[in-house]
């Protein structure tokens, strides 16, 4: 990608293979194998294309897509077509925040001041709509399903 990534992401990828958390959040582990890397590249290119279209064609000046300066960098998607991104607002990737773009573009962006692992922990433990997705996860099993 040509940019350093947060240390917590690297550690997360050392611990988890590609898979789905709580049947809600999909992650692809780029170091797992060639197939996972290819799927990650395909997914990320699609997510960045969506941001580019939103940014250029709809004059959304919220966040540009990577590799634009301060452009958002995808790291996961949700089961309905939304995307989770890092916001590289600082030169130190360990200080990057997470932003979420819902499939429902009218909902706009949701920004946190949390790193990726804090957002994933929140999603893993959420029993209400108080999470970055705004989804009620009370009825979702707290599990991880590898691909």
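Sequence proposed for the structure above (147 residues):
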């Amino acid at each position: 990608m040509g940019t350093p990534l947060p240390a917590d992401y690297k550690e997360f990828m050392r611990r988890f293979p590609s898979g789905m958390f709580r049947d809600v959040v999909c992650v692809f582990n780029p170091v797992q194998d060639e197939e996972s890397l290819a799927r990650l590249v395909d997914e990320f290119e699609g997510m960045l294309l969506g941001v580019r279209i939103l940014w250029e064609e709809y004059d959304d000046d919220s966040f540009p897509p990577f590799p634009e300066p301060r452009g958002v960098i995808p790291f996961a998607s949700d089961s309905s077509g939304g995307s989770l991104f890092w916001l590289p607002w600082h030169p130190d990737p360990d200080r990057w925040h997470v932003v979420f773009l819902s499939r429902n573009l009218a909902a706009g962006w949701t920004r946190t001041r949390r790193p990726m692992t804090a957002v994933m922990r929140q999603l893993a433990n959420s029993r209400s709509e108080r999470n970055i997705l705004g989804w009620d996860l009370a009825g979702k099993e707290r599990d991880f399903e590898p691909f």
